[in-house]
Amino acid sequence: AWKNKVGLFITPTEFVRSRLLNSSVKISAEKMITKSHFVPDAGDGNEQREDFFLFAGRIVKEKGVHILLQAFTTMHGQKIVIIGDGPEKDTLESEYKSYENISFTGQMDKLQVREYMKKCKAFICPSIWYEVVPLTIIEAFSTGTPVIASRSGAMAESVSDGYNGLHFTTGDPNDLKAKINLFLKETETSKMFYKNAKQTYLQKYDPG
Predict the structure, then answer these.
(1) pTM above 0.90, yes or no
(2) How far apart are CA 73 and CA 32, in angstroms?
């Protein structure tokens, strides 16, 4: 059925396309194209960003929230806001409740999340598994918000290291901390990360 009854396969990233081309499904390259997901333009973020970084998503181990929290335990001058719910939320919230720079908001609707994106310094995507294409990255770009992401899968493809954000070694809280500090240093003198994030959205993910 896969080989004879499907005329064309569409993948959202080149990473997904390459994985399928090299899988046991044995689909020919001519029958598979890449077309990015897209989201509506959420509007530009605030020119003056507030003093926090942001994570939004399901709080499960594969999303790497524990890696994110480990990084911020030694970054007392930097705040992380975690939006979302999931099976690990209560455990992690209890474990890190003594850290004043770490806060959990619980579940929020999309409009509320976008408002946080417009205010934060950067969005962090710390997943330890391959993502097909994280829509939160695209949504962050639509608000002109840079992304600090794990260097793996579609995340490494969506985020251009040093252009619209930074990569860090997957599963490594020390490297994440180093890249956050690098981001802070770079944005002290330049707004290019923010401009490039919006430009990436307009070039690749705008439905228009």
Answers:
(1) yes
(2) 44
